[in-house]
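Narrative progress, year one. The postdoctoral researcher (J.K.) led the effort to move from monomer predictions toward full complexes, under supervision of the PI. The following entry was the first complex the group processed end to end, covering 737 residues in total.
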Amino acid sequence: MIVVPLIVLIPFASAFIGLAVGWNRLAARRVAVVGAGTALGLAVYAAVAVWAGGPSVEIWGTVPTGWIPITVATRADGLGVTVGVMVTVVAFAVQVYSTAYMRPEPRYGSYAALVSLFTSAMLLVVFADDLVVLLVGWEVMGICSALLIGQHWERPEARAAAVKAFVVTRLGDVGMLAGILVLADLTGSFQISALQESAVASTTLTVGLVLLLCGVVGKSAQVPLHVWLPDAMAGPTPVSALIHAATMVAAGVFLVARLDSVFLLSPGALAVLAVVAATTMVLAALAALAQDDYKRVLAWSTSSQLAYMLGALAVGGYTAGLLHLLSHAAFKALLFLGAGVVAHAIGTTMLSGMGGLRRSMPLTYLMSTLGLAALMGLPPLGGFFSKESVLAAAEEAALHAGPLPPWAAWLVLLAGLFTVLVTAAYATRAWLLAFRGPTRSVSATAHDPPPPMRFALVMLAVPTVLLAALAFMPSVVVAMLNPGIGVLAEPAGPSISAGTAALSLALVGVGALSALAEWQRLGGRDPAVSLGPVGPLLADGFGVDRLYEAAIVRPVTALSRLVVAGDRDVVHAYVRGTGSAVRALGRVPQAAQAGRVQSYVTAGLAFVVVLALAGAGAAWW
Amino acid sequence: MRLAFPLVASALLFSLGVFGVLARRNAVLVLMSVELMLNGVNINLVAFDAWWADALHAGQVLTLFVITIAAAEVGVGLAIVLLVFRNRGTSDLDDLGLLDERTESVAESAESEAAR
C-alpha cells in the first residue's frame, strides 16, 4: 500500500513547509492542521483497507551496511493501523487545540513544525517493519520531545527538563540499540517479521529482549528511568497531551506489543517486564497522590497507567494491554487538554490555585470529570473496561498457566489492584481540588475556552466514552488488533472477570470515598495533608531525583570539572608554558638589541679584536 | 726616519677616533671621530708609501681618494644629523633608539596579553 509511506511522509513534509512559512502565523497554522488532518484521513483509509483486506509487508529498498542490511520495510497490520489512527486522531486534536492555545506564543512556527515532525516519527515507529527504521523514528521522537519540552527555554526549569528528558531516555536507548544488534545477530535480519518468524526460545533471545526493554523503560517512563516524565511537564500542555500522555510514552508499550510473539517465547524477559511494571504502577500512583501541580499529577498517573499496559503485555494480555493503551490515550489526552484550558484561563497549573472551576468553566469541568472517571475506572467509560481486562488477564495468568512465572503474574495482579485504590484516591483528590469547593478569586473570572479548544476536547471525549463498546466485542478487538504476520497463535480477546471487577470497583469506592471524606473533614483543604510525614516524600517521588542527583549527577559533574581542570591547568599549561618560556628566553638576547648603535659597534670591535688575537695566537703557536 | 713614528701616530689617531665613535653621544662629534679614524688611515697609507718607495705612489693617490670621499661622506652625514635634529629635537645617539628590538616586542606581548 503506497498510502503507508504517505502517512509518514505527509506530516514530515508539513513539518518542513511549516518551518519555511513559520514567520506567517496563519500559513503555519494551516500547514500544521492540514498536515495532521491529511495524515488522519490516510490513516483511517489504511485502517479500513487493512481490516478489510488483511495485513501486508512491503520492502521499499535495502541499505547495505557491510553486515546485516537494513531493510526499509513498512508493515500495515491491525496493530499498526489501530495505533496509527489513534496517533493521528490525537495529533490532529492537538494541532487544532494549539492554534488557539499557542496564540500568544512567539515561536508558534517552530512549535507546530516540531509537533508535525514528531507525528511523522511516531507514525514511522508504528508502521516500520525493521528494527533500525523503527529506531530512527524512535530517536527523532526523542529529540522532538526534548525540543518541545524546552519550548519555553527562557525558563531554566524548562531547559533542565529538556536536557533531563533527552539524557535519561538516551540512557535507555543505548541498551535498546544493543538489544537490536543482539536480536539481528540471532535472526540474521533487522526485519521484525523475519524476527517473528524465526525466533526460538534461547538465552540469547532473553538477553536481547531484556536489552530492548531498557529502551522501553526509558521511553515509557518506567522505574528506574521514570524521573524525566514529571519534569517534562515544563513543556506546553498540548505537547504533554500528545507526546507525554498519548503517543511517545506509549511507543514503549507499542514496541513490546509489536514483538509480543517474540516476548512470549521468553518467560525471563516477561518476568523482568512484570517486575518493572508492578513497581512503577504502585510507586507512580502513590507519588501522584501528593503532587500539588495538576500536570504533575497527570504525569505520574501516566507512568502508572503505562505500567498497566506493560503489565498486561507481560502477563500475555495482548489485546487487554492495547485496549488500555487506546482508552488511556483518549482520556489522558483529554485530561491534559482540560488542564491546558485551566492553565490558559487562570494562568497556573497548581491545584492550590484552583478550586470551584465547575461554575465558571462548565464544559471543561464536564470533560475533565469524564477523563478522571475513566482514569479511576468507573463504568461505563472506556477506562473501566480496559483496566478490568488488564486485571482479568493478570488473574488468568496468576491462577492458570501464563507465559511467565506465576509469582510475576501475582505481582502484577496485586500491584494492579492496589493501584486501583490509589488511582481512585488521587483522581478524586485532583477533581475535588480543581473543580469543586469554594470559588477562588482567580478562578471567578475564568471561562470556557475558544472554539478550537472546545472542538479538541469534545473530539477526544467521544473515544473516551465509546471505546467501552469494544470491550463487549472481543472478536472485533482481536480482528482489529491482529498483528497478522509471523504470529504463532491468535491472541485472546479482552475479557472481564467478575471477581476482579467486583474487587476493583470496591477498591475504587474505598479510594474515592476516603479522599472525599478527608476533603470534607478538612473543610475543602487538600486531603494529601492527612498523609502526614509521608506526604512530602510522595510529593518528592520517593526522593529518587535526589538519589540520582547524589549518586550520578554530582559525581559526573565533579568528574567533568576534574577533566576541565586537567585540560586547562595541565595540558593547556604546557602549551602556554612553551610559549612563555620561549618569550622569556628571547628577552635575554634582546637586551643586546637596545637600539644603541655605538654598543653594536663596540661589540663588533671587540669581536674583531678577539678574532685578531686568536689569529695571532694561532699563527704564533 | 723610522717607520715606527708615523705608524704609532696613525695608531693613536685611529684609536682616538674609535674611542670617539664608541663613546661620544653627540652625532656631530661621532662624525668628527670618524674623520680622525680616516686620517689615521691616511697617515698609515702615506708612511707605507714612503717606506716602500713605490714608483706609482699608490698610497698617496689612495689618500687623495680617501680625503675626497671623506669630505663627501661628512657632507651626507651632517645632512642626516641635521634632519634628525630637526625632526626629533636632539642629536643625542642614546635617544635615537629606533633600532631597539625590545620596544617592538614589548608592544607585541602587551597586545597578545590583551587579546587573551
